[in-house]
Amino acid sequence: MNTLVIVNQNSSNSCALANYYCERRQIPPENVVRISWNGGNTSWTLNDFQTHLMSPLLAALADRQLNNQIRFVVLSMDIPFQTVSDGAINSTTSVLFYGFKDNSGASSKTVANSYAFSEAPLENARSATSPGPSFLATMITGRTLAEAKKLVDQGVNSDGTFPTQPVILAKSSDPLRNIRFMAFDNAIFNTAVRGNYSMLRTNSDAPSSFSNLLGFETGMAGFSVRPGTFVPGAIADSLTSFGGIIFGPSGQTSLLEFIQAGAAGSYGTVTEPAPDPEKFPGPQVYFFQSRGFSLAECYYQSIAAPYLGLIVGEPLAAPFAAPARGRWLNAATNALSGTVPFALSFSSEPNHPLQQVDLFVDGKFFETLTTILPTPGNQVALSLNGSSVIHTVTAGETTESIAQDLAATINAPAALKANQVGASVHGDRLELRYLATSSPARPAPPGKIRVTEDRSTAAKTNTATAPKATLATSSIGTAATLTTFLTASRNHFLNSPAQGWKKFSVGGPVQIGSWLRLSAIKTNGSAVVIGVTNQSDSATAFSLGRELVNAINAATSLQSAGGAAAESLVAGWSGSATFYLRARDPGLPAAGIQVLLAGSSNLVINPAKAGTLTDNLSDLQPRDHVYVTTGTTNLNVNFSFDTTAWPDGFHVLTAVAYEGSHVRTQTRATLPVRIQNTSLSATLNLPETTDAISVRDNFNVQVNANRGDITSIELFTTGGLWETITNRASGTFTVSGSELGEGLHPFYALVTTASGLRYRTEIQSLRILP
Questions:
Q1: Count of alpha carbons within 13 Å of 689, Cβ hemisphere only?
Q2: What is the pLDDT of residue 441?
Q3: pLDDT at 118 over 70
């Protein structure tokens, strides 16, 4: 109901793909907009975009009364993926999302996506930099029509499957393109806390070496992926300059490689982005998927500045969505007249209460039947380290405001000191982190530490005792009903699977005799010193840094428990070096190894002070999640429907129930009805289908009314109104198979009399063959 499909009428493949998508996703016929574009499938100007796409789109929304319901827009292949204005280039999907952005504003707030990381419905967190309507836009395409149809299948077939296959986060050997690796740990930790998703990190340059994956994130300019690598619903992409150049030469592997291998969605930039991770999806995209958000929501929430990025994918794919169950309770659906009572019943799992039910008539939003708000007087509470954090709901609160109030109470100075638990808010989710850490021993001055090899068999590691339980409760309080709920992902804080790291840089002139030395005190108290001295006239800070990195990784004293490894050595300006020192073992205790990098006076070293491997401290602290939801698990709705406000004839009532979290998973219940308040009626007759109708054929559709005062007969099919015949009681419409395209097409007619009476015929469908 909230998805609109854009089809290029001048492309038979675009028509066929759009028809296939509409059939698979049950998109109403009036949610298809036809545009006419002959200029190729790579690039168009911003003026072309406005004239040929945006203007027809907005006009259709207004004419068809769809303005308040469309959230997703799908571009059906053979529509340009680049939009160009005055030398600036954006992706067409991003322009639909938040308007055209000038490339010169690459570091400006004007390209910021405030929807990113909101964990909220688009209507609650629409990007603040969007100058007009905002749509979660994706393109469905492929090198062939068959490949594009497979993409549709990989999305649709994933819904509610809760796959167990892993996501691989690959840190490649390309230092310019592997830069997302620093965000791997946070996403892996979040999905581990949630507990329904498998994510693994690896050092790999070969996507082709993996199979049976739910996702893959890497950074490579050229690669190959084997067909069948991905299961339905998979999200996969590479951080590289021209992954979004899906047609035409670019010298790099395009995102279509992932699509061809079975991914339901991928991403790539359509012009040079520079090595800026904000212009690419972060690995948190997979955590959003684990929550149940759709593919389009996951991508747009994970990209801080998406203006250069093309999203190709089936936008509604949601393998971790948990729909409810719904049914209509009415027995009578035929020859309805006057005001008719209707009843509905929806039920859901305990952690997915239902908050709202909307009524759609013939695919158009009609009214909200019920909305359940947090009830004033309800209480939600958390037990942290034995002390309680309690919030009483007040009038006008939302799930997000309740989460914010809880976080404010948890983070109050007195509570923070007592519980050592900090909270941050992400939409309707509270992220709790245990802040207490033990204090490792101070390192001795580097000149007084002997080079030693650690031969101890038992490491005396630091420990940080996290709270044993996160008890979340909800109670009715002083209210009459309980509609506000607090749920923890776990009943305890989870220790981090991340490895601690610290970033170092070395610069300045290098002379013969220049030296670098890493001094460390491991968590078991043993001291290690590793040093290198330059003996070359041509050495640079980078080459000296490389010697130290090699020496660190060769030291057996740092290869055992409680040790560390040096990695990600990158050359910088004027021969400088940057590298990371990473704990070999996961968790906060192992990151307590204390290190100091020192060097000769001609070198510039940062940091110059001793410290632990805790640059990523927030990824190392024990963590739990708490969710605020609103609604009820058993939602019964009764309402009255005035049939006289609608044409006589055949209609479809669709009730849509929404989950009471920010994921807003939808559950549909449909009911075909026939209204008969007058004697007016009409019939629609399609051609006999014993002879196959192909896209090369024209065929006739016959409509006959039962009275003579007919002023108009309107025929509707895929794309809305096809043709109108006036002042006749019957009419024959000629339909072009090539214009509709290959696929299944619904047909219905609307008959109007001189006195304003109307009749809507029953929908009949006809399949047009290639």
A1: 9
A2: 40
A3: yes
pLDDT above 60: residue 310: yes
Q: Give 346-367 pLDDT, tens digit per residue.
A: 999 999 999 999 999 999 999 9
Are domains 325-372+631-675 and 682-768 of this chain identical in fold?
yes
Distance from C-alpha of 623 to C-alpha of 224, rounded to nearest angstrom: 37
Sequence-distant (6+) residues with CB within 8 A of 28 are 1, 362, 363
Task: Please give the DSSP secondary-structure letter assigned to residue 754.
Answer: T
The answer for residues whose C-beta is within 8 angstroms of residue 571's C-beta and 6 or more apart is 542, 577
Q: Which strand (E) or helix (H) includes residue 84?
A: strand 82-85
Class at the top of the CATH hierarchy for domain 682-768:
mainly beta
| CA dihedral (13, 14, 20, 21) positive or negative | positive
Residue 448 has pLDDT above 50, yes or no: no
Apex 338 CA angle, 332 and 339, nearest 5 = 75
Average pLDDT over residues 470-478: 92
At 602-624, the pLDDT tens digits run 999 999 999 999 999 999 999 99
Q: What is the DSSP letter of 270?
A: S
Q: Where are the alpha helices (DSSP H) in 464-614?
A: 541-554
Q: Considering the chain, what percentage of its residues have pLDDT values greater than 90?
A: 88
Type of residue at 231: V
Predicted local confidence at residue 127, as pLDDT:
87
Bridge-based pairing of strands 743-753 and 710-717 is antiparallel
d(CA 693, CA 48): 35
Separation CA 5–CA 122 (nearest Å): 18
Instruction: Report d(CA 569, CA 552) in Å as an integer.
Output: 12
CA separation (Å) from 544 to 4, 338, 507, 576?
58, 87, 10, 9
Helices (H), 295-385: 295-301
Q: Which of 49-53, 459-463, 521-525, 557-561 has the lowest mean pLDDT?
A: 459-463
DSSP label at 556? G
pTM for the full model? 0.94
Q: Where are the domains of the chain?
A: 3-313, 325-372+631-675, 501-618, 682-768
**Can you tell me whether residue 183 is helix, strand or coil?**
helix
**164, two tokens:** 């167990």
**762 phi and psi, to 5 degrees?**
-70, 145
CATH of domain 501-618: 2.60.40
**Does domain 325-372+631-675 correspond to CATH entry 3.40.350.10?**
no
How far is Cα 483 from Cα 695, in angstroms, rounded to an integer?
Answer: 54
Inter-residue contact 684 to 713 (CB < 8 Å) = no
In whole angstroms, give the CA distance from residue 641 to residue 69: 21
